[in-house]
Amino acid sequence: MPDDCLFCRIVRGEIPVLLVAQNDHAVAFRDINPQAPVHVLVVPRRHVKSLAEAADASELGAIALLAAQVARQEGIEQGGYRVVMNTGADGGQSVAHLHMHLLGGRPMSWPPG
Ligand code: AMP
User: Fold this and answer.
1) Segments making up each domain of the chain, as ranges
2) Which of 92, 87, 9 is nearest to 53 (CA)?
3) Ligand 1 geometric centre to CA of 41 (Å)
4) For the whole model, what pTM was predicted?
């Protein structure tokens, strides 16, 4: 739990966010720079740098299930949505604390940029 990790600080409540949901393993809050009408980040409470370092299947499962719960809460389950885990430099990861993006509320294109 590094002192200077942005998402660790958010999990500890040191930086204000728009909280959407949480469970024992993960916290969901609105992205500060939304790329879709619904753009929520789901992060593990425990510091894990990225998916490449992840080893706890129940923690990863909790993140994915919280994203699905938020999609239901936000009313985008019916229309569909996208979840993304940018991983490492080529993956476009800018915050070194594992996170799942939940994006929805508009049609998504493929391939991503
Ligand atoms: P990534 O580029 O996949 O590492 O995603 C990091 C995300 O964190 C970006 O979409 C940012 O907009 C978002 N972000 C950065 N700072 C904050 C913050 N203080 N509160 C909420 N979201 C943030």
Assistant:
1) 6-104
2) 87
3) 8
4) 0.98
